[in-house]
Amino acid sequence: MSMRMPLAAGMAALLSACAMAPLPQDQSVTLYPDQGLAAVMIDTLDPLSQVTFQGGGAKLVVAAVPPGIGLYLFPTRAGRYCLTHFHFASFDFAAQSGMQQCFQVTAGALSYSGTLAPRVEDGKPVTRRVQDPQGFRVLLEQQYPSVARQFPAPPGG
Length: 157
What we know:
The protein is 20% helix and 48% strand. The protein contains 3 helices and 10 strands. The chain has helices at residues 4-17, 133-143, 145-150, and strands spanning 19-20, 35-44, 48-55, 58-65, 68-77, 79-88, 91-94, 102-105, 110-121, 124-130.
């Protein structure tokens, strides 16, 4: 019996250090009191992989991003999350400190990252961000209607 507690604690620590994958499309979500729903929009011209955000004691990873605009939802701890890494073709790119695109995840809320556009320009990673709340809402309602009903648009938004 004493072996189970250290093993369970070790497994919990290991699981919390693991990367989290996005919520499957149109699945409703239940949040713990310290969690928010990170809504990450990515606009890419080329296929990307291992698009990674870190913050709030968690790592959020989108394993594969096809060209176009995609929406990825992550139930995660509240905190500040930054795009730290992505893979393009046969190259890995890490954001330089101070040059990362970051967003805040608020407990109990749906938190939009802005539309992030990771690119490689002159061999260096560059990520542009635009705010498109209307486009975000349209994509949310198309891909995650259950979540859109759980988190209605604010008045005038």
